[in-house]
Fold these 2 entries.
Entry 1:
Amino acid sequence: MTIRAAALAVVIAAGVAGLAAWGERRVSRQTDTDRINVVYWEKWTGKEGEEMRKVVEAFNASQDRIRVRYLSISGVDQKTLLATAGGNPPDIAGIWQDQVIQFSDNGALLDLTPLAAAAGLTRDHYIAAYYDPLVYQGRLMALPSTPASIALHVRPDLVPPEFATPATFPKTLEELDAMSDRITRKKPNGEIELAGFLPTNPGWWPWAWGPLFGADLMAGGKPTLNSPEMVRAFTWIGSYARRYGSQAVQTFQSGFGNFSSPQDPFMSAKVATEMNGVWKANYIDVYAPDTPWFAVPMPYPADRPDLEGHAIMSQDVLVIPRGAKHPEAAFEFIAYVQRQDVMEGLCLGHGKNSPLARVSEAFYRNHPNKEIRLFDRLARSDRALNIPKTGLSPQISAELSVAFQEVNTQVKTPQQALDAAQKRIDGLWAIYERQVLGR
Amino acid sequence: MMKRREAWVGLLFATPWILGFAAFLLYPLAASIAASFTNYSILRSPQWIGAENYRELAQDAVFHKALGNTFLFVVGAVPLATVLAIALALLLNTKVRGLAFYRTMLFLPTLVPMVAQATLFLWVFNGDYGLLNNALRGLGLDPPNWLGDPAWSKLTLIVLAGWGCGQAMVIYLAGLQNVPVSLYEAAELDGAKSWARTRHVTLPLLSPVILFNVIMGIIGSIQVFAVPQVMFPGGAPARSTYMFAMYLYDNAFLYQRMGYASAMAWVMFVIILVLTLVSLRVSDRWVHYETN
């Protein structure tokens, strides 16, 4: 009797585990049996999530064969990878452009080239700065959802009157430095009260400083982090820590509130200028709508006028993970998002510029960001800058971030910091070439 | 016959656990050993590369940096938490009014989730408006930037380790209850004062408990992850707080180098094993068991 009871318990436990596993598949795959269910994982929540949800609902209403199920997922990139490895990925995932090459190297993404070609989604449909980073080894691995370009945001009420318009604002970095020195105020105890400009705020693009000085991070087809242009860029970064005091800058910055709050340093008048993306206007509208501001392209080194109008790009993208159950249906939705009217609606909702080559006048007219034409122009410029197209870009970003911190905290000189980063990345590159690229 | 039947029944009842152990512990352990000898990104089939991951670890400057940071953390945090926990346990072992309240209050921080702790301390240690620096400024001092200055960031983490000493404190408190009162009385008759009684009676009889807590502290400190990950993302500033487990996590999930991360995990296991064995060996000299 006891053996029977124990055996029964084991059988029941095994049965429950089996049902749970089988049931999960049934539930996640086919809630709606009259249509193909496409599962879409996306990072967005809040307003951005709502805007994409509207697109999904419009797509679902536009036809009767496919139903897209939108799910907001935190850590969407890692969860997509793990789900792909486990053989149960979503049909569509919304990740970041920076990750496309790394994911592709790992064979995590479906090649969209034939599907895009069949749908007429070729390079000329897009702004090159947004399309080209998504093509890897001749294959299209992702398509844009919403893009962004980065510019210098300025508080006209905090800069000297002669610089308080886009037309009169400093064009070169040397002029920006001089203006910043004029604006920056310290208390009697040495604490900073207001900063004109700080390269460390918000400090989200450590890879971009070198290219803003003309550096090629992939010179000769391999990561190059200690070129003269890079050293010059990091020397310029370090000059702010030297002039305003490394400790004073750190303490000042530690008092900055979150960018999505009224305590954001730009909105709370702690910094007069800030490099930030097209999305900044959304936060200003929500948290400090009375903040006066305008945007200009990031100034360039005086001796490099060829770099005038350069800007950093970034974008959110849609991919189909390897092993997706309904790739054709998934691509049908992605292609729907690429329609000019749909994309413009989404980008208007997100307050971003469009990644498409063709943009309607109504888009500019109705856009909530008053500087949208500038952000759009920066993206169309041949000086638009993207993160290096290599699967090693997370490591390159990490090494440059460390060098950035070492220079700002004056632990190392720019040359020492970048030499150390180069040495480290050389070792990683050799492994990457051997283990991932198979060279 | 009956014994055999009982053995089968026992085995059957233990089967769910045995299955769980095999599936969720034994298999991953074996798989991670195998993965540590491969180039493996979890999305591609593992490729055998022999001891290359281990050779790379020997030359990896960031690994050495993370290892050094972790050792400094262990060396600072374990003694601090031990001394603090023993001191609090001794205080809570006295007969004062409201003892239960004090015990509860001192144990409560242990129940706060790590991420909540880390978020709380981001406010306390903030260089500009933090509670600590406001207090220090009130005393006329020029306080450092605890979170942003590489010279102070590691120390901040070590100080925070004291926050979670409540768990050890409770174990010490239990150990203190077991010290026979007769020994204190005998020591008192011999003229031993308070400190002498603590040193010659309490601590020797508490030494097995201290050994247990020190070993658990070493293991926990080598694996420290959540608090530095939240407070100092990426080991900022300048990798001064980059810990072993953070680098392991980054390799596994950020850089997709699961084979390399597995090799790191096994190095961590060996380090913990060696330190535990050394602690046990050294303990012969200072740990006193009642049976001795």
Entry 2:
Amino acid sequence: MRKRIKPLLFIMFTLALLGLALLVLTACELITPKPEAPIIYALYISLDYYNSALRDLNGTLRDARELATAIQIRAADFGVEVFSTMMIQEGDASEIPLDSNIEYSLYPVKTQILQRIHDIGAHMRDNDVFLLYFSGHGGGYSLDDPDLGFLVTAKPSASSNVEYELISDSELRASLSNILGTKLLILDSCYSGQYLVEYPIEQLNRDRIIEETGYDPDLYYLIAAAPEELSWETFLGGHMHGHFSYYLLKALGWNHNGSTTISIANNGTFDIDDSFSLTVSGNIQNNSIAPAQQGTQIRISTLSHMIPLGIFYDNGVRYPQHTQTGKGPMDMILFDSTWE
Amino acid sequence: MQLKKRTRILRVSMILLLTLPLVLVSAGHVREESEVAAGFRLESSWYGSLPSEFQADPLPIRSHLALNTSVFPFSVVMSPTLEFSTGLTVAYTSPSLAYGVSIWRAFFAFGPTVELTIALNPSFSLTTAGTLLVSSYVHLKDPTLMFRLSAIPEFELLPRTDTRHSVTFNVPVHVDLRSDYTAVSVGLGLRWRYYSTGPVTEEFVP
């Protein structure tokens, strides 16, 4: 049996292997300096619409407060710094109650929400994370215009003639596009799938999609429903919750026993010493590992995967609710214990 | 591309690839005395995804680990130096290494493979392959098509001189072509073949 290997082919193949090895060694994640650990800037917007003609929502505020608490606890577990801002409309007062200790600038009217997004964005570095959570009414689905979508915000003032205002998907995308860093949009509202920008997978129409939709590779999604679907509230864990938010909380390890009071930094300012106290029903058990944790990480696609399909019946009609997340190969890490 | 259209392309491609040996036989390209073989290959690779510009990734390469296996139920040994194989490839590619807040997803893929192996001498051969793969990222139910081109040098470990079996050591190099990005992988593997006829002892004639 002959042992000779054709020398030219062998040399060519060895060179190819060496070239690839060089490529790997000079470019891989192990060699490139790691970015600093991100700071999470979270903005929670939630409304119950008791002060408007719109249908009341009974679980939205609880969802927002519990999620803010869960994120704060998990962030502490992973050693990640979080700045939280809550914009809440609560109760039947025509606008923010005068005796409330909440700043009017944190009342969730359209202009203030967009201004708050802008202000937070101005503080962020390119390795930070902006988390925007909205629980409230959404609408606008149309077969003729699948890009039409909006979030319903609060009545702008007691003297205003309008009951509510709308933030369209293009307005929200435009405000997010100015933010440095990675953005995570978590929406628990009807038709929220309209906010998910199509991943431009095909070469043929990529430029058109990017131009028309403003596709942003740094924008990730956790969205309650498909574009044509409603997002439901239901009685879970002893309270009313949004189906989506309830299972999102569960994936983070939230349970509905007892209560938790924590100090959350901060509420609209960027001073680490400025904080507000939040008491909510439920807790995350000390030293527990979130069900969504894989290895050292909690990733968005895992959280999304852990929210089950919802099937709801209204007047005999069956309504499914599918959680949405971005397509394509890129995924976002919400927490990682190896961050330094 | 619509999923229905992709599925139709895949179905037609699989039928064409898997029936190609029969076409070759009926067209007289394979002599009556040609022998047939079966086998499989198992490999583990470093898998590097090369992000496209629109993905704006901070890294030029995303490193994954890949495991591939291919089953070849029907190969035709067309001459002492030429073998044609069709089979099915199943692959798993792990999530990439994390970098900051981003990571590339794991995916599964499967699809038909067609290969041509040229023996350059009794102990060394080169296989070129094309594979049409349906891939789906883990946790996403969104199958997409990709095409894999492969060059696989094979070094004989267990020669056919004694048995009906042969085992080769492989250094597979793959290039995965997707519509949104490209990937390359280099790995190590083993391929086992079982031949329909007995040991071959005659002298190799290139």
